[in-house]
């Protein structure tokens, strides 16, 4: 079951400059910065009440963020939904005809298992599913 918007991902060219900008905009400092090597990104996270913003800077030219910046420029890159059981949700969405981009949930940032849906099947919006890892 989808339970919430978990975060909104924003592609940025310069994470330091965008951290400053979003700190001023939201009036809070980022609570976390984390590199996710498998995605070729460095992230930083802001939280305002229940709303989470994830800034993403590319760390390699073949990163999805580098490609997105090259094609579309900075801006909203994806919307992430929290799910209670990612595997069940992936199966349900595949059954509805959506294309999952990873058949097995992978480790994302901020202690999450994640899966992406292809934007060509979701009105050009890249959708991420996130399930909290309980350790
Ligand atoms: C930090 C970890 C994690 C978290 O925990 O939160 C993250 O958020 S990681 C975020 C970065 N990772 C990803 O985005 C992984 C999923 N993405 C992909 O697998 C690929 O980016 C893609 C969506 C399959 C596209 O890859 P590819 O086909 O190689 O690139 P193209 O540039 O050729 O794009 C094809 C087509 O898709 C459009 N596109 C690409 N990205 C987006 C997007 N974010 N939103 C909307 N549309 C997107 C792109 O414009 C192309 O369209 P056309 O030009 O019309 O062909
Ligand atoms: Co994300």
UniProtKB/TrEMBL annotation:
PROSITE patterns given in the database record = VOC (PS51819)
According to the entry, every stretch annotated as the VOC domain falls at 4-132
Give the Gene Ontology MF terms in alphabetical order: metal ion binding; methylmalonyl-CoA epimerase activity
Please state the Enzyme Commission number of this protein: 5.1.99.1
Q: Which UniProt keywords apply?
A: Isomerase, Metal-binding
Pfam (any one): Glyoxalase_4
Principal EC category = isomerase
The record, for CDD domains, names: MMCE (cd07249)
Question: In terms of domain of life, where is this protein from?
Answer: Bacteria
Q: Which GO terms describe its biological process?
A: L-methylmalonyl-CoA metabolic process
Q: Which family does it belong to?
A: Belongs to the methylmalonyl-CoA epimerase family.
PANTHER family noted in UniProt: METHYLMALONYL-COA EPIMERASE, METHYLMALONYL-COA EPIMERASE, MITOCHONDRIAL
User: What is the name attached to this protein's record?
Assistant: Methylmalonyl-CoA epimerase
Per the UniProt entry, what species is this protein from, by scientific name?
Fibrisoma montanum
Provide the taxonomic classification: Bacteria, Pseudomonadati, Bacteroidota, Cytophagia, Cytophagales
């Amino acid at each position: 079951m989808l339970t919430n918007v978990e975060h909104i991902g924003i592609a940025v060219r310069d994470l330091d400059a965008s951290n400053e900008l979003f700190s001023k905009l939201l009036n809070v400092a980022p609570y976390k910065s984390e590199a996710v090597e498998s995605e070729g990104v460095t992230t930083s996270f802001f939280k305002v009440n229940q709303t989470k913003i994830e800034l993403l800077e590319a760390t390699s030219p073949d990163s999805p963020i580098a490609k997105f910046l090259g094609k579309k420029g900075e801006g909203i890159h994806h919307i992430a939904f929290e799910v209670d059981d990612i595997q069940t949700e992936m199966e349900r969405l595949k059954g509805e005809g959506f294309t999952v981009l990873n058949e097995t949930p992978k480790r994302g940032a901020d202690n999450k298992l994640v899966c992406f849906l292809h934007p060509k099947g979701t009105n050009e919006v890249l959708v991420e599913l996130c399930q909290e890892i309980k350790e």
